[in-house]
Write a structure and sequence with these properties.
By secondary structure, this protein is an alpha/beta fold. It has 10 helices and 13 strands.
Length: 294
């Protein structure tokens, strides 16, 4: 009896992280126990100037490279690659951050979780993976649950377990999304900032549509945690530079974009969450004095 291969499109975006991107691709394309998988890769090279695209073409010629102009960031780059991949109607779409390195059995665990949950509920689910910090070994990205109804925009990171567990939403480091979900939810939202919130929003939109999200068992990858260096919390920067960072694509989302997110997910408290961010931008002195890194 012949088993039909599962067709999976991996979605990646990158910018000037050649070594990390190459290592990420190597960890993906050398997965164990995926003989029944047809794996394609759609990678957006968002204006890299360090030879990332050329290095990928040389080492991994099977990768579909899409060119960006350097202004896409995570949301825009992932949306671009996702859009191109969905034209070919894959069974699954795998989001993967280019600085995340998968364990050898990561894809197998994601697929097994997806299939097992479908057999139990007869409905497709999104499956994310738990990631640990490459240096500390502590869990830093993965599935998240809402802290409470009174704090709908506060999400608690779940620790890894030996069995799969449900979550409300997820970080976008490694996420397996089946075809049925993409047909209902579509692409990453274009309404948010270029860098933030697209992954959290996608998980919540899927939840509202009746789809569950689950976390695969075990640790399935590692990734260096984001640091405060070069951000609004970097004390070595001048106040002027901090304000610039706050208003940059990687800083606080602009008012209009944050308005969309808070109205969609903040419940009755959405005006508070939106106005609080405007205060942060309007009075950065106060914000930087009061706010401490978590």
């Amino acid at each position: 009896m012949t088993t039909t291969k599962k067709a999976i499109a991996t979605i990646i975006t990158c910018h000037n992280r050649k070594k990390k991107t190459l290592n990420c691709l190597a960890s993906l394309l050398n997965q164990d126990n995926i003989s029944d998988v047809k794996l394609d890769v759609y990678l957006v090279d968002d204006g890299s100037s360090d030879g990332t695209g050329e290095a990928i073409e040389e080492k991994f010629p099977q990768v579909n490279i899409l060119k960006g102009d350097g202004t896409l960031y995570w949301n825009g780059g992932m949306r671009f690659a996702f859009f191109e991949a969905m034209k070919n109607d894959y069974d699954y779409y795998l989001w993967l951050n280019d600085d995340t390195y998968l364990t050898d059995n990561a894809l197998k665990l994601l697929l097994e979780t997806s299939i097992n949950r479908y057999e139990k509920s007869n409905k497709e689910v999104i499956v994310t993976g738990t990631i640990k910090d490459i240096y500390t070994g502590q869990v830093n990205y993965g599935g998240r649950i809402q802290k409470s109804k009174l704090q709908p925009l506060k999400f608690i990171l779940l620790d890894s377990k030996a069995e799969s567990q449900p979550c409300d939403t997820f970080n976008g480091n490694v996420v397996l999304i089946p075809r049925d979900v993409t047909k209902e939810i579509g692409n990453i939202s274009l309404e948010y900032s270029r860098q933030h919130s697209g992954d959290i929003d996608y998980g919540l939109r899927a939840k509202y549509a009746g789809f569950e999200s689950w976390v695969a068992p075990e640790i399935i990858g590692e990734c260096q945690s984001n640091t405060y260096k070069g951000t609004i919390f970097d004390k070595s920067l001048s106040l002027t530079d901090r304000i610039k960072q706050m208003k940059s694509p990687k800083g606080v989302p602009p008012a209009r974009e944050w308005l969309v997110f808070t109205k969609r997910h903040g419940g009755i408290l959405w005006p508070y969450y939106w106005f609080r961010t405007l205060i942060r931008v309007a009075f950065p002195f106060m914000y930087l004095f009061i706010r401490k890194p978590q």
